[in-house]
Amino acid sequence: MPTHIPQIVGLSLLWSAPTVLLGTVVLLRLPRISLVTSTVILTLIPPVAILMGVVGVSGFMFTDDLKRTATVLTSVAIIAIPAAVLLGRFQARRTVWERHAREKERAAEQSRRELIAWVSHDLRTPLADIRAMAEALADGVITDTEEIATFARQIDTDAARLSAMVDDLFEMSKINAGAMRLEREHLDLREVVDEVVAGCGATAARNDVRLQPALPESPVIVDADGRAVSRVLTNLIINAIAHTPAGSPVVIAVGRDDAHAYLRVDDAGPGIAEHELTRIFDIAYRGTSARTPRRDNGLPVGSGMGLAIAEGLVVAHGGRITVSNREPGSRFEVRLPMSITEEGA
């Protein structure tokens, strides 16, 4: 057995280096291995390398000292491997959570940027119109009675649009802050459809669009805030009317399956581009020109937050809203948990 330190160091490095190199090669050549596996390999490299170095220095003479060293290293490995597995799983979960948090933060930042861009554009336009018309009236540029009345009506229209935008911003801020208070009650979705269809009937008639409710004979009861559900359905129906050609129907269906009730709004429009399906509920996202409402169809120009608000209200109820293309047009589906009493019926 060597007694000189340089020889001991040399033999230790000679016998332990292959273990370290082998572990390194495995980690580098297999980049897709799980975090748990890589943690176990990293944990095993030091004790195995130490054991190989001791064996090399001893000249393969299995003395009592070598046996004791091997026993200690084996015991350490028995304890270290389960600990490495647990720590690896914990680190994997934390890594996934951190990645998810970063993605949410990036998405929130992108949403904030889009909202700022929307505010700077969509709020500035009606404000500029109101200011220009108010100055014209104040300076006496407009003297004709009919023109003055037209300007007054336009100012009122723009002011109402601004008010609606501010209301939508306030609603969206409550949703994002988790401050939405729901006044839940036993709600029959058929009655909600009847009320909303009646309220949207005049708008549909002006655009020559037929609203066709498809309601079951038996009640479909959910525990929900009636005002919120009506707001969601109104947003979806107005959106459907805006994109449905004249003479075509908008079908509003109610039903249930398993533990959920559903509301479906089917339009007969051009559909939604595949790359837009994942962004259709983003704040201020209007999509391509094919999905942008015309200003001459009698419908109010939306704030761009209607679908985002609808999604927020549905999620606040523990539900889900989805969109898909059909032939022709697109389908928006709202799924809400059934009332407990209704499930037991």
Notes on the protein architecture:
The protein has 345 residues and is of the alpha+beta class. 60% of the residues lie in helices and 13% in strands. It is built from eight helices and seven strands; from the N terminus they run ααααβαββαββαββα. It has helices at residues 5-29, 35-58, 64-138, 145-176, 189-206, 226-243, 306-316, 340-344, and strands at 184-188, 210-214, 221-225, 249-257, 260-266, 320-325, 330-337. The strands form two sheets. The protein has a five-stranded mixed sheet. A two-stranded antiparallel ribbon has the order 1-3. β4 (249-257) and β5 form a beta hairpin. α6 (226-243) packs antiparallel against α7 (306-316). It is elongated, with a radius of gyration of 34 Å. Mean pLDDT is 79; it is low at 289-297.
In short:
The chain is of the alpha+beta class and 345 residues long. It is built from eight helices and seven strands.
